[in-house]
Structure formats: structure tokens, C-alpha cells
Amino acid sequence: MQQLTDLLTSHGLDALWVSKPENVRYLSGFSTPKDGLVLLHKDGVLLYTDARYTVQAEEECFVPQHIARDIDVIRHARTLLEGKVVGFEADALMVNKLRQLDGLHAAQLVPTEGLLEGIRLIKTPEEVQKIREAQRIADEAMRHVLPMLKAGVREVDLALQMELYMRSHGAEDRAFDITVASGYRSAMPHGTASEKVIQEGELVTFDWGARYQGYHSDTTRAFPVGEISEELKNLYRHTHQALQLALQAVRPGAMTSDIDQVARGYLAEQGLAEHFVHSLGHGVGLAIHEDPRLAKFSPERPQFNVPLQAGMVVTIEPGLYISGVGGVRLEELVLVTETGCEVLSHAPFAEV
């Protein structure tokens, strides 16, 4: 609690309205955070939710709860916040919810961004363990589905089998819409899964993850079906090498843009830089995409170029995409350690 109190003090706040679902869950343990709000103040943390969740909130939450409708939430909070400086998450609060906060007539409302995300950058051992379990479930799902990968199978059927496996083996849900993209569709970085039938000679990209007790995993692999072209083999081999080089560069103190440049620079040497169209990676935790961002340095956004720290969990995911040919992305989930990094993902790679 002291860390949270210091956070408020350092930003000149007496309290903070928390509406971003991952932050609501982080502060309260409430597993339906989209239907909750948290009031963080210097005397503690209070969860607001409605009567549908009375029993659930009592069972799950490690903070006090107040059960009320929207209008009654403001009436209750007004008694706590009179004359106070109250922050709100400007990047997450809907306009209609902000209008409701205007009911706090005696409080000064201040927009904020990224306050709790800064604390969430470094995972506790308990958080890391939950991410490990999410990744373990996802790795097993890949091993379960891989024998089903063959010509004549629809992409969507493989995605369904992955989701069913994860849900039936301890996951709360998939971490995001599962990508199964084959052939020409593998040139779509976020191709999800379609009714396309996989053909012989195609490269198939899988991007998937599990959510376990609120925490996510994220991995990408690509597998050939039968014999693939030399062009696709080269794309795969160069992507794999870029991945390995970037992993070797991950350590505390390394700048996020420098890690991105390791992979991007290698691919540029191969004449492939124009086909690497996204950033190298991102943080993973209660949100599937969170800080830090591992991206090309931009003078316009220097705040996104930060040093890695032990306890961060990030993805490393170079990819190459050529329209009409196909593409490949390979992604590992890693924990930054005191001496380098630990790869948390253990799904098999293809031999190409």
C-alpha cells in the first residue's frame, strides 16, 4: 500500500479513480473488472460494483467492496472526496462515465495516464508464476494441435481446437483472437483464423495465448505443410536468426529500441527490412499488450524508449511479410532476469 500512497503523493493527488479493467483487477482481485471501478485513496482501496457481483466480489476481492448503482457510487464517493484532488484514467474513461464524475462537485478532477502501469512494469514472483502457468497451458495446446496440421484442414478448426484445449486445461480464456494464417494469408500479421482450407506447400502461422487468473501468455510459431518454396524457407530462417540475436541482447539496462534494432538491423543486412512492418515486442501481464514497448526509436516518442529491468515480461517477435508470397513470425515470451533473460515459452519450432 505504501507504494500506492507514494504514487498518489508524487503526482499531487489525494485519490485516483481506476476504470481500466487490468488496473481494477490488479488493485482488487475482481475477475470481472469491466464491471467494476476502484477508488484508490491514501487510506486504502475500495472496489465499486453492482449487485450482480455481490457474492463474487466477496469471494474474490482482497479489498473492501461497496455494492451500488452508478448514481449511488457517486453519492457514496462524494462523502470521501470532498475538497480532494482526484485523478482519473484519461486514456480509459468513457465520456459518459466522466460526466458522472462531474457529480463530485466538491472535488478537483485531474486527468492522468500511465500511473499504475508504471508499477505494473515489474512483475512480482506471484505474477510471474501466473504468467508461467498461462504459457505452460498454451505450449501444451500447440503440442496438442500440431498433429492435426495437414492439408485439407480449415484454419478456424485448428484455432477452435487450441481454444478448447486451453479452456479445458485450466485457462480462463484465450488471451486474444487466435491467429491461424496459411499460404497467402500468412502475410497478414494479424490474420486471425478464417475458413480457408490449408493446402500442401503452405507455411502456416499460429499466434496464440492463454489467460490464467487474469495473466496472459503470447507466442507465435510457423510450420510448413509439406515441402515449401526456397523463398519461404529463407524468410523463416532469417526470422529465426533475428529472433535469436534479439534474445541474446535482452538484459537489464538494455534500451528497448536497441533490442528492436538488433533484429531490424540483421534483417536490413539481408535486404528484408521493408518486410518487417511492426515493432519487435511488448510487455505482457494483466493486459496482453502493455509497457514496455520494444520498437524502433522515434524522436517524436522518446518516452517509449526505456531501459529493460529485471522482472519485466516481454515478447520478442520479429516477422517478415510479403504480399502474394506469404509471411512468418516467430515469438518468444521472456522474463528479464538480473543477468539476461529466461525464455518462458517452450512450444516446438519447425525444422525448415
UniProtKB/TrEMBL annotation:
Pfam families: Creatinase_N, Peptidase_M24. GO terms for molecular function: aminopeptidase activity; metal ion binding; metalloexopeptidase activity. It comes from the Bacteria. Keywords: Aminopeptidase, Hydrolase, Metal-binding, Protease. Residues 130-338 form the Peptidase M24 domain. Residues 2-122 form the Creatinase N-terminal domain. The keyword Ligase does not apply. The keyword Metal-binding applies. This is Aminopeptidase.
